[in-house]
Every structure is written in C-alpha cells, then in structure tokens.
Amino acid sequence: MPFRKVAIIGLGLLGGSIGLAVREHLPGVATTGYDADSEVRERARELDLAQTIADDPAEAVRGADLVVLCVPVGAMRGAAQAIAPGLSEDAIISDVGSSKQRVGKALAEELPGHHVIPAHPVAGTEQSGPDAGFASLFHQRWCIVTPPEDADAAKVAALVKFWKSLGSTVEVMDAAHHDMVLAVTSHIPHLIAYTIVGTASDLEEVTRSEVIKYSAGGFRDFTRIAASDPTMWRDVFLHNKDAVLEMMDRFQADLGSMRDAIEADDGEAMFDLFTRTRAIRRSILEQGQDDARPDFGRGHE
Ligand SMILES: NC(=O)c1ccc[n+]([C@@H]2O[C@H](COP(=O)([O-])OP(=O)(O)OC[C@H]3O[C@@H](n4cnc5c(N)ncnc54)[C@H](O)[C@@H]3O)[C@@H](O)[C@H]2O)c1
Ligand SMILES: O=C(O)C(=O)C[C@]1(C(=O)O)C=C[C@@H](O)C=C1
C-alpha cells in the first residue's frame, strides 16, 4: 500500500466507515481522525473509528500521506482551510463528496500546490453520524475518482489502489460528467423521495398516521431515502445545481408525458415504459450492483 498514514476529516457514516475499513483491509496503515463536533470526536474514540482522534484539524493531518475529507460538500472549503497548516507537501488530499465540480474547485483554490484528487464512493445509506459506519460499506461498490487534468499520474494510481483495497471498483472520470450522471442516478431520486413523502404528509385527507400505517409497500422504500441527512442533501442540491436543474426539467417533461398517457387512456405507452424499466432493474441485479449483496443492509435498516 502506497500510504503509511491516512487522516480522516469528518467522522460520520463515510469517515467512520473508512476508518473501520482501513483497519480491516489495511492493518499496517495508521489512521487519525478529526471532527468539528466534540461529541462526535468523543463517540469516535469510544467506537475506535481511527487509531488517534485529534482535537485540532491541522494536528490530525500532520504526517499523513493521504487526507480524506468526509464532511458535507458545503463544508469542504472550510475543512480545507482548517487542515492547510498541517499538510505535508506530497500528501494527497481527497474527499468523498457526492458532487465533484464545485468541491474540486474549492479544494484546489484553498490548497494551491497540493495534490488535490477528488473522489466519490457511490456507497451509502440513509443513516448518518459516527454510529452509522461499517467496514464493508465499500464492498462491490463503485468509487469514482475525478482527478484534475494536471494531476500526478502516480498519485492518482495510489488513490485508485487505496479504494480498491477497501473493496471498491474504481472508475476515473471527468468531474462534470460525474455530476451529470449522479444527478440522474442519485440526486434526482433523492429529490423525488423527499418530495413524495412531503406531499403525502401534507395531504389533508391522508393523515400522518395513515402515511405511517399504509407504508409497508413501495412507499416505504421512498421513506427510507427521504430519511437521509438533511444537511448533506441540502448541500448536494445547491452544489450540483446546474446538473440537477437540467435533469429536473427532463424528469418534469417525462412526468408530463406520463400524465398525458393516463389522461388519454394510452395503456400501450405505459406498458412500453414499464417493460423498459423492469429490464433495467433486472440488468442491475445481474451485474450484482444491488442491496441484495450478502453483507449489505443487515443491521443498517
Ligand atoms: N451518506 C451517504 O450515503 C454518502 C455516500 C457517499 C458520499 N457521501 C458524502 O460524504 C460526505 C459525508 O457524508 P456522511 O453521510 O458521512 O455525513 P455525516 O453527517 O454522517 O458525517 C459528516 C461529519 O462531518 C462533520 N463535519 C462537518 N463540518 C466539518 C468540518 N468543517 N470539519 C470537520 N468535520 C466536519 C460533522 O460533524 C459530521 O460528523 C458528504 O460530502 C456526502 O455528500 C455520503
Ligand atoms: O443507498 C442509499 O441510501 C444511498 O442513497 C446511497 C447513495 C446513492 O444515491 O446511491 C447516496 C449518496 C451518495 O453520494 C452515494 C450513494
């Protein structure tokens, strides 16, 4: 492994999981952690999420050859400013943020002359906080690395190797492309879940208790997604605004077409779409990229 010491800034679901995963998969690699919230630091010590938990961000990154920022995307710039005084010259500074263009720009602006290589493990749950982390989170999951054009190839290779060691399949991609793809596959689905659960709870004739009572089926899946962390997702929508708005326009147009099909009793249009979407789900299952993988979901519902 090209790294001797990994510093993790932000010790919630992602940061905690990285700490636990490094201990399991890379036992020779030292870990330090820091979180802006002193209660999270305390809990991280109890849970042993990293070998050392520092009370100061610059102290946490001192001597680290890989620093991974695991804070909400809106907090990345501030976290970069806070670690700057402690960074080694040849350290890689990466992150796990769900949107990449603005995060990459903020990190590059705050850390000129450093090796900034953003990344996004496409792995998570609706849970947050230090108790939510688990070592197998990244198993059989994509991790998308979005290096700037002038990135040092050896440093990119080292980061790719790190994520592979934690069980991920790695793809290197342009940040703008990442943001467009993830807007469709992750950000808009969360927006739809937040909206539909909000709509259901707002409806006067569907009381809150009935929403809970009858949510055993498909609606329950939406409520899981809609329970995701409000700070994280507010930041994602604001930081990937352009791609999210573009995809929302597409989605609204498609929703309008579906409305027209229902109004016109056009069963064929509906049947064709539902057949296509069923095939997509089946191909996802065939590729093994699903919650049905053996070590996922248990104990994290
Ligand atoms: N939750 C997911 O499913 C998921 C999946 C992939 C990527 N991500 C990304 O990972 C990042 C972290 O998400 P999470 O789910 O672990 O959130 P989380 O709420 O579980 O943890 C975030 C932690 O960051 C800390 N923090 C906030 N500002 C800080 C700062 N300036 N310095 C140090 N610590 C700070 C918070 O106190 C909190 O403990 C986000 O950027 C998110 O977009 C999340
Ligand atoms: O499974 C979930 O609960 C998730 O929402 C995980 C999920 C996703 O949309 O796939 C959420 C945000 C991330 O940036 C990566 C993964």
Automatic annotation (TrEMBL):
It holds the Pfam family PDH_N. GO terms for biological process: tyrosine biosynthetic process. Pathway: Amino-acid biosynthesis; L-tyrosine biosynthesis; (4-hydroxyphenyl)pyruvate from prephenate (NAD(+) route): step 1/1. Residues 4-292 form the Prephenate/arogenate dehydrogenase domain. Its EC number is 1.3.1.12. It catalyses: prephenate + NAD(+) = 3-(4-hydroxyphenyl)pyruvate + CO2 + NADH. Keywords: Amino-acid biosynthesis, Aromatic amino acid biosynthesis, NAD, Oxidoreductase, Tyrosine biosynthesis. It comes from the Bacteria. It is an enzyme of class 1 (oxidoreductase). GO terms for molecular function: NAD+ binding; prephenate dehydrogenase (NAD+) activity; prephenate dehydrogenase (NADP+) activity. Signal peptide: none annotated. Belongs to the prephenate/arogenate dehydrogenase family. NCBIfam families: PRK07502.1. PANTHER family: PREPHENATE DEHYDROGENASE, PREPHENATE DEHYDROGENASE [NADP(+)]. This is prephenate dehydrogenase. It comes from Aurantiacibacter marinus.
